[in-house]
């Protein structure tokens, strides 16, 4: 990645909340991850409450050499460094997520859990997810869809969506009129096998259903950075962050409050 491309990707993360980096995984490692994922899925019983996520297999890097290698994968680390995201660190585990053949869509949601913290106003990313796609992915087999900019700006959806995952969304009906709807500003993120899709945890995102007879698989890894201003940031720092009490008590919440302005 050239410095110019890296800067472009970083700006896209800041403004839109996502970017795609192609060919992060080698063909050999991609095949190894595919085979290992299939092995882990074969021994896994999918809980009823994650039907919209498909298979939902949690694996810690210390328990699996392939996952450990992925979390330490040098091309990924280099990509983060080039974007100025070198202070992000992996959580230590991953989740294997699928769209099973004929599987349903994933509902709209965002994954930020600190909406009471002034860091919710950060113009830079604080928590990101890295999706490694193990198969070519497009709308037909259940690609990710996002609403650019919703990591930093409130839209109508924020006020009407069912709270994410175990707080409500996992238990909604398959014909929910809002949670599975299309939004006029949504963008489909198609990805080649071996590509890395990176996104801000605050970004509203969902996934299409899988219309094919073949499983679509990705490996998700969460990354976090310190509660500081990034070294690359040379623009205005929001006052709410400049005045943030580092020792303050900010109760965890998945629901955007007043800190997410229109």
Could you describe the 3D structure shown?
- By secondary structure, the protein is an alpha+beta fold.
- Helix content is 19%, strand content 20%.
- The mean pLDDT is 95.
Secondary structure tally: strands = 11
Question: Biggest sheet, open or closed, and with what strands and sense?
Answer: 7 strands, antiparallel
What structural category do the secondary elements indicate? alpha+beta
How much strand content do the residues show? 15-25%
Q: State the distance separating the first and last CA atoms.
A: 34 Å
List the helices and strands and how they pair.
Elements: H1 3-15, E1 18-21, H2 27-42, E2 56-60, H3 65-71, H4 74-83, E3 89-90, E4 93-99, E5 106-109, E6 127-133, E7 144-146, E8 187-189, E9 196-200, E10 205-207, E11 216-224, H5 239-242
In brief:
By secondary structure, the chain is an alpha+beta fold.
Keywords:
alpha+beta, 262 residues
């Amino acid at each position: 990645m050239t410095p110019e491309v890296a800067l472009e990707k970083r700006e896209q993360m800041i403004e839109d909340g996502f970017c795609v980096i192609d060919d992060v995984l080698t063909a050999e490692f991609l095949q190894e991850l595919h085979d290992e994922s299939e092995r882990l899925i074969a021994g896994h019983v999918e809980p009823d409450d994650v039907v919209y996520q498909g298979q939902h297999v949690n694996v810690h890097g210390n328990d699996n050499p392939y996952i450990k290698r992925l979390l330490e994968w040098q091309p990924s680390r280099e990509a983060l460094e080039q974007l100025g995201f070198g202070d992000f660190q992996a959580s230590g585990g991953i989740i294997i997520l699928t769209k099973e053949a004929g599987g349903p869509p994933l509902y709209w949601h965002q994954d930020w859990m600190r909406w009471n913290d002034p860091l919710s106003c950060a113009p830079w990313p604080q928590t990101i997810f890295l999706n490694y796609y193990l198969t070519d992915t497009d709308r037909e087999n259940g690609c990710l869809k996002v609403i650019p900019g919703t990591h930093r700006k409130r839209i109508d959806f924020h006020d009407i969506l069912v709270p994410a995952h175990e707080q409500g969304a996992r238990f909604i009906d398959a014909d929910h009129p809002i949670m599975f709807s299309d939004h006029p500003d949504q963008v489909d993120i198609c990805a080649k096998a071996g590509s890395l899709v990176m996104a801000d945890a605050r970004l509203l995102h969902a996934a299409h259903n899988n219309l094919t007879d073949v499983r679509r698989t990705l490996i998700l890894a969460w990354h976090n950075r310190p509660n500081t201003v990034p070294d690359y940031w040379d623009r205005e720092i929001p006052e709410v962050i400049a005045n943030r009490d580092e020792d303050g008590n900010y109760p965890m919440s998945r629901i955007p409050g007043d800190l997410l302005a229109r």
